[in-house]
Amino acid sequence: MKLTCLAIACFLLTGCGGEEFGDLRDFVKNSGTDMRGKIEPPPNVKLYEPFAYANDANLTDPFKPRKPEASTNGKGGGNQPDLNRPREALEEFPLESLKMVGYVYKAGVGFAVIRAPDGKLYQVKAGNYIGMNFGLIKKISDTEIVIKEEVQDSTGDWSERISSLQLVE
To answer: Which residues touch 145 (CB under 8 Å, ≥6 apart)?
Structure first.
C-alpha cells in the first residue's frame, strides 16, 4: 500500500514539473539578437608640455613666495600676534578638535570647561588663548565661546578671524 501511494505521488509530481519559465528563457536568449553596439574611439591625448617660468619675465613662479616671510621680530604684517609671549596649554590643539562641555560662573566671572583631544578638561576665561591660530577668547556665555584668531595668509600678512565654540551636550 505504501509503495503504491509513493508511486502515485511521484507520478503526480512529474506531471507538475514542466517549462514554467520557458517564456522568460526565450526572452533572455533573444533579447540581444537585434542589438549592435558601437563604441566610439577614445579621444586623442595631448602630450604634456612643461612650462618654464624662468623663460617668461612677466610670470612669477607660483611655487616661490611672492613676498619675503614675515619676520619674527614683531615688525611683520599689520596685526601680527605677539610671538614672544608664553604659550598656554590649549594652544597646542587645533580649534576644531576642542569641545566646550560646560559653563561655570563663579566670583562674577564666567568660565568655560573645554575637553581637549588628550581627554583632559580645562577651565578657561576671557583673555585666555586657545587653538593654534593665536586665538584670544573675547567672550564666554553659557552656550558659546567667541574667539578672535590671528591667521597668516600666503603672502605673509596677518588678519583677524572671528570663530566660536558651541556648547556640546
So the answer is: 100, 112, 124, 130, 137, 139, 164, 165
SS3 9: helix
Domain extents in the chain: 89-166
pLDDT tens per residue, range 24-62: 888 888 887 777 777 888 899 888 888 776 666 667 666
Q: Which long-range contacts (CB under 8 A, 24 or more apart) does 31-40 make?
A: none
Grid cell 596677518 in the structure block, residue: 158
The torsion defined by the Cα of 16, 21, 23 and 24, in degrees rounded to 10, comes to 170
* Domain 89-166 class in CATH: mainly beta
CB-based contact 138:126 (threshold 8 Å)? yes
Please write the tens of the pLDDT for every residue from 126-150: 999 999 999 999 999 999 999 999 9
Query: In sequence order, what E strands does the chain have?
Result: 99-106, 109-115, 121-124, 129-130, 135-140, 144-152, 158-166
Is the whole-model pTM more than 0.70?
no
Integer Cα distance of 9 and 127 in angstroms: 92
User: What is the phi-psi region of residue 101: left when phi exceeds 0, alpha when psi lies from -120 to 50, beta otherwise?
Assistant: alpha
